[in-house]
Specification:
about 625 residues; mainly beta; 46 strands; about 45% strand; disordered N terminus
């Protein structure tokens, strides 16, 4: 606060942490935090002295010193007096190489600006020694080594300079502005990050260049898994459609749509072809192998928000924000053959095709019901209300004649299509809107993701998703727009804001049904614990033992049967029933599998049913 007591609005907060124990299993410890007004674009530790930092921003360069005062740490700041140069915006910092001047009084700091200049500053005297003009646009990245200096600019050029900056001896133009640079320890390779989401490596002696990473430049809107190859396709608001390899994570193909973007994408079930729906109402068909557009039709007045192929690939359906559902003959060059006015309009339209290909599900009026059409003639077969809820997502059950839906308040609905009624409603699965759901082939595992940035895996039993048998996984910085199982069900791919595409390894066999077995095991264990607690509370002297009630004998018989089924060789490790289902990363093994761990754990549990007094058993069961 100033002298008058009025509060200042600090623009920046600089926090310093001690991370020396993190790699040894410890935690990061906050040493000090400092609020200050000047803008800050970059801060780096000074290699010349311990506990010194340098920061730069709009019209300022600051020198920081970490000092210990009375068992506490303090950050003290000194502003470099720039004088007439105070109107410059400083974007990046670099320091003289380790083999530079031996005179400690002449150590140099280099600062790049938004006007294409590089300032050479004397670290000790805190004065500006030289100013060099190296680019015609902003210099976003700056690296100085013992033998040369590298600059990356918004003019898309990377240049390598001698330390006297007389003239560059290497220049490389990129497809987008250069935003980040790093030089290898041997100074023979330069890593380059550009604004279009690529990271490349340049070999300095040979001038060779190799792109190692590609990514989207904006939020990823849609995701589709190739049903036959270990590949997937994404669309983003940057106007690109990209196909990726699921094993190498390399970008295989790219389709450009400058000035527009695809809101949805789906693979043809039999051909190496994708269909994309665009925000201008057009539906386009692309051949992936030849990267060519096969067909384009514009049947919608609003954006196309959902696409679906029949399992045999004979028909394609598109839903638009204008409330229309269009049918295309995929065999005859995707000619539009019918248009149906849907009961619902808006950008939350959603389509789902049944496994048999005979039914198409969509949302009803006001998203308050599900409507099922016959795919042959698009006649309405059934409409079921959502019990006062508004729906967002739909998906047919993989095995049964049922339809699942996600509501706007994050509940799961199960509709029995034979009875034509809502059969089940779950509790809230997420704290914020759910944007994606996907089911395993056996219908026992549910994948959900949404605005809260969490990816959740649910083991689904006869009573629906059980919160005790769900795991949440953090990896996305913000909204997840889509998450899907890979065709072999061994991995999960998730996309969303933050431009990231995350691939997760599954550590559970989604084709193995262990849900009912685990439910019975947990229920029996809980009942036994409750019974023992009730007995110990009643009296220290155990009551006379009487024959076990029929229910206990039934459970005992079930457990004895279970013990006979799980006889198997011992494994080395032991894990709880609720062990990890997913593990983020590229590795992740399957040995031992979660089912093996569950069996081993169950075999070691003391599940014997000791007969007790009837009143005690009744009290435990009632608890």
């Amino acid at each position: 606060k100033d002298d008058k007591g009025a509060g200042k609005n600090f623009l920046n907060l600089l926090v310093m942490w001690d991370v020396s124990m993190v790699l040894r299993g410890g935690k990061a410890v906050k040493l000090v935090e400092q609020s200050f007004e000047p803008s800050l674009f970059k801060v780096r530790f000074a290699p010349f002295e311990e506990g010194r930092l340098v920061s730069c921003g709009d019209g300022n360069i600051n020198l920081w010193r970490l000092k210990r005062v009375r068992e506490k740490h303090e950050l003290r700041r000194m502003m470099l007096q720039l004088g007439v140069h105070g109107n410059q915006t400083f974007l990046d910092l670099a320091f003289e190489g380790a083999l530079g001047s031996a005179d400690l009084l002449s150590r140099k700091i280099y600062a790049s600006t938004a006007s294409g200049l590089v300032y050479q500053i004397n670290y000790t005297n805190q004065t500006v020694d030289q100013i060099y003009r190296l680019h015609d646009a902003a210099i976003n990245a700056l690296v100085v080594t013992d033998g040369f200096c590298v600059t990356g600019s918004a003019d898309r050029f990377l240049r390598v300079w001698p330390l006297d900056f007389s003239d560059y001896f290497l220049e490389a133009e990129h497809a987008a502005p250069v935003n980040a640079l790093s030089v290898s320890a041997d100074c023979l390779r330069i890593a380059i990050g550009t604004a279009n989401g690529t990271v490349g490596v340049m070999d300095v002696p040979s001038h060779g260049y190799r792109t190692v990473v590609r990514s989207h430049e904006s939020i990823v809107l849609a995701l589709a898994m190739d049903p036959h190859n270990r590949e997937f396709t994404t669309t983003a608001a940057d106007g690109t459609i990209r196909t990726w390899d699921l094993d190498s994570y390399d970008q295989l193909y790219e389709f450009l749509a400058p000035g527009e973007f695809a809101r949805c994408v789906v693979y043809h079930p039999r051909l190496y072809v994708i269909a994309c729906g665009f925000e201008n109402g057009s539906t386009r068909i692309f051949d992936i192998g030849s990267t060519t557009q096969l067909q384009e039709y514009r049947q919608h007045q609003g954006m196309v928000v959902s696409l679906a192929f029949t399992p045999d690939g004979s028909k394609l359906f598109s839903a638009g924000a204008d409330g229309l559902i269009c049918v295309y003959d995929a065999i005859r060059n995707y000619q539009p053959i019918k248009t149906v006015v849907s009961a619902h309009a808006g950008d939350d339209m959603f389509l789902s095709i049944s496994p048999s290909g005979r039914m198409l599900a969509s949302l009803g009026v006001g998203s308050a019901s599900v409507v099922v059409f016959n795919t042959e003639n698009m006649d309405k077969m059934l409409e079921v209300g959502a019990n006062g809820r508004t729906l967002k997502l739909l998906q047919f059950a993989p095995l049964t004649n049922e339809l699942f839906a996600i509501t706007h308040d994050c509940r799961l609905h199960r509709y029995d299509l034979d009875a034509g009624e809502l059969a089940y409603e779950s509790i809230g699965l997420h704290l914020d809107t759910i944007n994606s759901m996907d089911w395993s082939e056996n219908g026992k595992f549910l994948l959900t993701a949404g605005h809260d940035g969490l990816l959740k895996m649910w083991a689904v039993g006869s009573n629906g998703p059980n919160p005790k048998r769900c795991q949440s996984f953090i990896g996305h910085p913000s909204t997840i727009t889509r998450a899907l199982f890979s065709p072999d069900k061994k991995q999960v791919v998730s996309v969303g804001a933050g431009y990231g595409i995350l691939v997760w390894d599954l550590l559970v066999d989604t084709n193995e049904d262990i849900s009912e077995f685990v439910d019975r095991l947990i229920d029996a264990r809980i009942a036994e614990q409750q019974r023992q607690e009730y007995q110990s509370e009643r009296s220290e002297t155990p009551p006379p033992q009487l024959p076990a009630p029929p229910a206990s004998r039934a459970v005992s018989s079930l457990l004895e049967s279970f013990r006979d089924r799980i006889q198997a060789p011992d494994w080395d490790s032991e894990s709880d029933i609720g062990g990890d289902i997913l593990e983020k990363g590229l590795g992740g093994g399957m040995d031992p599998s979660p089912l093996m761990r569950v069996r081993e754990r169950a075999a070691k549990l003391d599940l014997s049913m000791t007969p007790t007094h009837p009143s005690a058993a009744g009290g435990g069961g009632g608890g």
